[in-house]
Model the fold of this input.
Amino acid sequence: MPPPMPPPTPPQAPGPAGEPFEPPVHDQANPAASAVFRPDFPPVGFQPDFQPQDQTEFEPLAQDAGHPPQDQGYPPQDQDYPLEDQDYAPEDQDYLPGDQAHQPPDPALPAFEPVAQPAAAGPSAPDFQPVTSRRALREAEAAEAAAARQDKPGRWRGPITAAVVLVLVAAVGSVGWLVGKPLFDDLTKPKPTQQTDYPGPGEGAATITIDPGDVGSVIGDKLVAAGVVATTEAFVEAWNKAGDRANSIQPGTYALLQKMTAADALAWLLDPARRNAISFTVPEGKRADEVYQVIGAAMAKTEFESDADQAAIDQAAAERSAEVQQAAADAAAIGLPPEANGLVEGWLFPETYSFNIDTEPTAILAQMVAQTVAVLEELQVPRERWLETLTVASIIERETKLSPDRPKMAQLIMNRLERGQKLELDSTVVYGVRRFDQNLATTDAERQDANPWNTYVIPGLPAGPICNPGRETIEAYLAPEPGGWLYVCATNPDTGEVEFNETIEGHQQCVAKWQAWERDQAG
Done:
């Protein structure tokens, strides 16, 4: 409860010009014109919302002559009424202790006359509603504050923020849809079934090259790249079903069809007629000059169609053979080891070879020399015996034709060398005089010719191999059959039969048999 208001102080001086104070006449038609100016609370027309405790009619105070009328709306000092607004505090700036706002006017100043205010421009203000209680006053102030907050620019912050968020969400969603939709479509669309093998029989044409060492999966990759088969897996499956036959595919260039079944492609690769490659086989016991001819013929064959003129093929073969022989003269280029002493004879391993059609003669010869070295190393022949092994094996190759005779021939050579006896073998004489035919019979002049290979003249082994021995003959020299044989004689040159003897008498009987055979042939 606010403190009690002090009683009004009577005026100290009369009105103007010493005249007694006359209260203004209240104009019922224009209350504002006759009201005394009160700049503070309560406003004109204020009516309290309480009833006196004695429930009697409120009587206004009698007017005292010469004193301004008191605020009729303020309750008597002794009125003790409960305040409805419990949060009212003396800090309220509208309240002044001692009712200082109700002090009598200064007698030196003229009475205040209110001035009518002109109507403000713009929209008309709402009709004034008098405030009849403190609660109503505070409700009015709260309404004004709410209206002021709505008039501030910040009132749009909430809707604008929500709009921005919606725009950002829409933008992110659009980007996500643009990026994710193709991925989603790719994951959800039906996948075409992969064709693992073509139905065949094939179309068009394709060419692939198989290199030495290619296995099934590597060949399958090449076939897929050339459009021959659908998948590597299909070809590997056909390869596995073929078993050991698949391993016989030779290196070379093959002419195939596109879109073949994997089984058909494998069958074509196994057909030598479909291989376009430098392919040849060197038999055991062939001399180097014979090997050159074999290689030259294989190279020339790749240059012509099957129905080409044979004379043209033979001419090309002779030219290619000369190229091969020229390449063999470069010992370093073809990889001859130092033990060969620069001589290629004996180092061209007899075997079946296949090379790509663009392979040079030097590379072909190098591969053959490397194969000879590989066999010697595989058989664990000491390097210092490489030349000896090849030389003796080459003699065995030329003196015998049947496999059972080779270990015996190896023992015969070893027996003569151990006794310090000359070998005196016609095969070495023929090679020394460069008579390259199938007749091993020699003349006295040939047997007397002084050359590094004539074993009738020189002791021990010839200067080097006289042909290119095969693996079986090399193994025969490394494991000779035990025996005391010192002589050998052919009994049937057509079948390759020979006879071994330990004595000269037995050898002479064998020679008589051979001479009889010759007479029969001359007939």
